[in-house]
User: Fold these one by one.
Assistant:
Number 1:
Amino acid sequence: MMRITLPESFFFYSTLSLAFIFILWLFYYLKRRRLEKRRIFICRFCKERIEIEPGQITLRCPKCNAIQNIEIGV
Ligand SMILES: [Zn+2]
């Protein structure tokens, strides 16, 4: 059987809690960033913000009527 002293158990507990919080934060951060990237497209000509559907390739700007390609990815 393993022997764990009180400071060691405290250390493990705090490390696990911090790791758990960090993983949760990372998950929400990546999800939010991906949503922001996919959903909003800014028109090259009039800087209008347009919401797009996932998988949509071309888009017609409702303000200046320009047809543009949407670049997905970095
Ligand atoms: Zn436009």
Number 2:
Amino acid sequence: MPGTGGATVAEEFPVEKCSTCQANIIWATHEVSLKPAPLTADPDPNGTFALRMTEGNVTYRTVPMAKRFGRRDLRLNHYATCPQAGQHRNRGRVAA
Ligand SMILES: [Zn+2]
């Protein structure tokens, strides 16, 4: 059995709630573009984003597919999974 020993240090990120579906999310800023995005608080097997704490700010970057293998700490963009995503897109409009 590989992988015994070598404790994995779980980094802690500030978890918030999605304003519409109340799922746990982590707001992070893209390392390069500085665009903020809500990522899923829990890692996902199909995740593509790696989170990191940088000087007190949570940043994320996209992990190339070739480097995702075996990783269990990658997240999805919550907008891709949020059941209320339509409300995010329509934010600012008043529904009748
Ligand atoms: Zn949501």
